[in-house]
Amino acid sequence: MPSIRAPASKKTATLLVAVKCRPLTEAERRRNRNIIQVIDDKNVVVLDPDLSKDYLDRIQNRTKEKRYCFDHVFGHACTNSDVYKGVRSTIAGVIQGLNATVFAYGSTGSGKTYTMVGTQNDPGLMVLSLNTIFELIKNDRSSDNFEVSCSYLEVYNEVIYDLLEKSSGHLELREDPEHGIVVAGLRSIKVQSADRILELLNLGNSRRKTESTEANATSSRSHAVLEINVKRKQKNQNRNQILRGKLALVDLAGSERASETNSGGQKLRDGANINRSLLALANCINALGKHQKKGLAYVPYRNSKLTRILKDGLSGNSQTVMIATISPADDQYHHTVNTLKYADRAKEIKTHVHKNIGIIDLHVADYQKMIDNLQVEVCRLRKELAEKESHVNVQSVEKNSDGEISWLNTLSQETSENVQERINLQKALFELEETNLRNRTELQHLDDAIIKDKDDAIALVLKSRRQLILDNIRDNEETGTVYRKVLESPLLVCFHIFVAPMNEY
Ligand SMILES: Nc1ncnc2c1ncn2[C@@H]1O[C@H](COP(=O)(O)OP(=O)(O)OP(=O)(O)O)[C@@H](O)[C@H]1O
């Protein structure tokens, strides 16, 4: 039986969008002009690559010069550590049970792999994030227990492979009502240090499909997703609580035009598949951007494996960072403007962040054990009171204190009722959480049906039912919170609570 998720408050977050412009390469310096001007840490201008345009063209708006504003802009002199400073706070939330996604988006050769993986001298965001996670765990002053595990996959030609397996077979995506999209059979390795993950990262990178293309000597042919899971066990007097934070670090494959990379055969096929998933990603960014501006819009997550994997990062429970990587070379003008156009759209995307709180080991047997314990407690208290009553009876002959006996009788009855109510409440809470698990499963089926069904009338009915289920989940979670609060109160505090009916359809 899965662990039961406790309700947690949701916070709306906006996608953090940063732009990183790489320096001109040695070869580019000989033949290209730099058309990127970083104005300050938030503003960037892409100059018109056509030098023949003059002042008059500019004031008459005939120039292709474009100006953009982002959360952060990093010029060619900035290192990966500089970029990392802008996203570090997002990473830090992972050890508090929050999810985070960082992905680099840009055309081939623009510096995605350099930014995410980096080099020995300039380690990338994957390495820097891992160091942060282990540093925070090491310096944590609570008595909590941490467990870190990692998985590393690639999506190559719309097939998922495990980069931590020597010869991985094809892996499938599965939709889990509790954990969202999961890759069935993906290996997750427990790790004790950042160094161990780096070893695994290097191993995975050596297995990754790369090719030399005309645009980039070591162009990534696959999308790689490194996922770090941090499980934090907290103990309080009533139960074990578990916080699960997830960090997804994504290095996308290079998008390119076939004509530009001069490729054919397998390379051309790879390129078509890479472009298909990147196009799907761009379409999702587009739809989500519109969604925020104009209300509900269909988001085509199902069009590629990549977008299904990134679904949480794009609209679900995740604090997400997009690093748009651009080349400063004048012959990359169209790619640069295209990347910045999507980055600009992505600024509108909102996600809903909440802590992943679970209660561990609360299985049917555990509930039964708790009920049994409470029943033992009732018997003990009854016995104790009976003994006190008989003692008082002897005294009452002497003191003739009828009032005292009746007070004890009332106390005995109240205590026994109190414990019985607590047992009922525990049972009700258990059923409430079971019901919400069933509600969530139905929600998942409804989501699938809404996407598949093209008929507007049916989709409308499905959507209204979906809303009903969502309302019920929320109501049940609110009721569950009240029950939990009562159960956490000291045993002998008198309480009378109405056990409300749970919502299930
Ligand atoms: N910030 C940087 N400083 C120095 N060199 C860089 C920087 N960013 C990228 N480069 C260099 O630019 C080239 C292309 O970078 P990289 O391989 O990271 O691009 P990419 O976007 O991942 O390409 P693809 O999509 O084809 O895989 C490499 O030679 C890399 O070393």
TrEMBL record:
Positions with a binding annotation for ATP: 106-113
Pfam families: Kinesin
Domain Kinesin motor per the UniProt entry, residue ranges: 14-349
UniProt keywords, alphabetically: ATP-binding, Coiled coil, Microtubule, Motor protein, Nucleotide-binding
Keyword presence, ATP-binding: yes
Superkingdom classification of source: Eukaryota
Gene Ontology MF annotations: ATP binding; microtubule binding; microtubule motor activity
GO cellular component: microtubule
SMART domains given in the database record: KISc
GO BP annotation list: microtubule-based movement
Keyword Cell membrane: no
InterPro entries, alphabetized: Kinesin-like_fam (IPR027640), Kinesin_motor_CS (IPR019821), Kinesin_motor_dom (IPR001752), Kinesin_motor_dom_sf (IPR036961), P-loop_NTPase (IPR027417)
Similarity-based family: Belongs to the TRAFAC class myosin-kinesin ATPase superfamily. Kinesin family. KIN-8 subfamily.
PANTHER family linked: CENTROMERE PROTEIN E, KINESIN-LIKE PROTEIN
Protein name: Kinesin-like protein
Gene it is expressed from: FLA10
